[in-house]
Design brief:
By secondary structure, the chain is mainly alpha-helical. It folds into 2 domains: about 80 residues, no CATH class; about 40 residues. It contains 5 helices and 2 strands. Strands 1-2 form a two-stranded antiparallel sheet. Strand 1 and strand 2 form a beta hairpin. Helix 1 packs antiparallel against helix 2. It is rod-shaped.
């Protein structure tokens, strides 16, 4: 098993962690007193808080913006990216349409199947 080198929530390298870590997975800024400091599951809100904290500590805005954008790739947030993405919503709608179409075809099969069979048997 490989040793973790950065926070699973904000991706801060452990070598740059300003405090004493309480967890093997998270930095001292993300995890205090036995729990995550931001317990929510909203990636955008977490990114906003991190950006504001970086600016408050004197980081330039471009660097803070770049590092904030990288947070979405942290293990804690990976699932949020796919499960709540536009692609996932589109996929769910597509599956729902397929299910409804299948149910309609199943419910109406006594009407269209005999006609289809007759058509196939009588065509040359």
């Amino acid at each position: 098993m490989s040793k973790k080198t950065s926070c699973e929530s904000c991706l801060m390298p452990f070598g740059k962690d300003p405090g004493t870590r309480e967890s093997d997975k998270y930095c001292s800024l993300c995890y205090k007193d036995g729990k995550l400091c931001y317990e929510g599951d909203n990636l955008k809100e977490f990114q906003k808080r991190c950006y504001e904290a970086m600016i408050a500590k004197g980081m330039n805005k471009r660097q803070a913006k770049f590092l904030t954008c990288l947070i979405r790739f942290a293990p804690r947030w990976r699932k949020d990216k796919w499960q709540n993405s536009k692609a996932m919503r589109t996929f769910r709608i597509f599956l729902l349409v397929l299910i409804i179409t299948g149910l309609i075809l199943l419910a109406t099969q006594s009407f269209w199947v005999p006609k289809l069979v007759d058509f196939i048997l009588t065509s040359k």
